[in-house]
Design brief:
single chain
Length: 129
């Protein structure tokens, strides 16, 4: 289940998204959206492949954290606040150090990721139209 406090964040912050969309001309918007879709598919696909493993070792946790970091950065630049926050937590749980926690990573991914991702993708698709 997605933590209730996350719903205080906008799925897509138009105060961030609108300036980004103005940077691209009308001709570049479809290309920008295609790039966003490709990056999301690559990062999410990598995380799903790792999640499908029976158990994640340290190296795989770090790889998961790196994928979450890359997705977080891109989503934050577009104003996708909820997904960026979720990715920040996944990154922290995957990163080498005192907060590395495979069980917490898997639980958070399983409980929240698809809902937050799907909400974000719906709003991005509408915003890019």
């Amino acid at each position: 289940r997605t933590p209730a406090c996350w719903f205080s964040l906008p799925t897509l912050s138009f105060s961030v998204f609108v300036p980004v969309s103005f940077l691209a001309s009308a001709v570049d918007i479809p290309e920008l959206y295609a790039d966003v879709q490709q990056v999301v598919a690559e990062k999410v696909g990598g995380m799903q492949e790792l999640r499908a493993l029976a158990q994640l070792d340290r190296s795989q946790l770090e790889q998961f954290g790196s994928l979450a970091h890359a997705l977080k950065s891109g989503m934050a630049m577009l104003g996708a606040a909820r997904l960026a926050l979720l990715c920040a937590k996944l990154e922290l749980f995957g990163k080498q150090g005192p907060h590395q926690n495979g069980a917490a990573l898997v639980q958070l991914f399983d409980q929240s990721f698809s809902t937050v991702l799907n909400d974000t993708l719906r709003e991005l698709e509408a915003a890019f139209q």
